[in-house]
Amino acid sequence: MSNRTDEQPQITLARDPFSTALRDLHKNPAAIKGQTRIDVADDYGNLTTWNLDLFRDHKGVTVLVQVVGLDGIPARFVIPPSVSEAIARHRSGLNTKARKRTGRLVAAKRRAEGLPVGNPEALAAARKEAAANRRVVQSRRKR
Predict the structure, then answer these.
(1) Is residue 1 part of a domain?
(2) In degrees to the nearest 10, what's the CA dihedral of 98, 102, 108, 112?
(3) Mind listing the pLDDT tens digit for each residue in 72-93?
């Protein structure tokens, strides 16, 4: 038996993308971390647990997702900043579409009821101001 004190124990770090990203983001002092856990139940009462770790740094927002379902085997993946930014853009666009659709429905309902839509005085003032601005721009072009 050999008793060597000069040998350092071998430490093997996980090399999967999730573990690597998590280590790198934890080491980054400029990264801001947010964390949440969501338990989603299906119609039969079976739970799926979602653990989300969000890190914001100079590159953007990186999302680390861990999902544990009925089988108990976790799935782990990394959503890079470019993808999380695309998700945010699409969500913003969907919110805009939903607001426009609701506005059109409300306006159509008011018209059907014979009620005025919007503020006629403010609309007239805005149109008058826009016409005045167009005249100023046209007069400057003629110079």
Answers:
(1) no
(2) 150
(3) 888 999 999 999 999 999 999 9
pTM of the predicted structure, to 2 decimals:
0.65
Region of 108 (left: φ > 0; alpha: ψ -120 to 50; beta: rest) is: alpha
pLDDT at 5 over 90: no
Three-class HEC string of 17-37: HHHHHHHHHHHCCCCEEEEEE
| Confidence (pLDDT) at 6 | 63
Q: Which residue has the tokens 């990264």?
A: 31
Alpha helices, H only, the chain: 17-27, 81-112, 120-142
Q: Which domain holds residue 99?
A: 81-143
Query: How does strand 47-57 pair with strand 74-79?
Result: unpaired
Confirm whether 140 is domain-assigned: yes
Pair (72, 87) in one structural domain: no
